[in-house]
Amino acid sequence: MDRRRFLFTALGGGAVLAISGVSALRWLGGGKGQGVMSAAAPVAAPAQDLLLECFADDDGHNLGPCHVQKLVLTDAQWHQRLSDAAFYVMRRAGTEMAFSGPHEKPNSKGLYRCAGCNTALFDAATQFDSGTGWPSFWQPIAKQNVIEIRDTSYGMVRTAISCAGCDSHLGHVFDDGPAPTGLRYCMNSVAMSFVAFRVS
Questions:
Q1: Per-residue model confidence as pLDDT tens digits over 14-52
Q2: Cα–Cα distance, 114 to 67 (Å, whole number)
Q3: Which NCBIfam families match (predicted)?
């Protein structure tokens, strides 16, 4: 793997990869996992350095821990990056309507990335049909890539799940899932993009 491809793959879109001697570059991702590396764009506040797990798009293998900076944008910048539906879910902790997005298990192997910053979130191998109308998984691809937050909205006590790379709301986790974890990570389709593995 050449150095440029490694940088693109290892970064996973989380924002800035901290490598000594390499200029800081920002992921200006488009939809569906597309993006280019360019000089850092304006952000709302200084970003926090993170240590996340990075995964290759071609076959999903774990590239190990990588230093990225949390993606911090203004509402206007998030509106430019996300669709209205994704903005409502990811930046306003909303919920898409059940069965409104792609929720069935894909026919190919792959992984799901954050629609906001491209951080790897879930391996399709852990996805199952929960019958709820939302993509459901029994575990995240890496615990450090997601954040659990106590959610007491609507008179309920739940555990909300956000992307560690950009603090975007993804969904909730419940304890009614299948083995081996018994958990159901109930995610919003618009908060994720699916990347099919290029090699079997």
A1: 443 332 333 232 333 334 333 333 334 444 556 689 999
A2: 17
A3: peptide-methionine (R)-S-oxide reductase MsrB (TIGR00357)
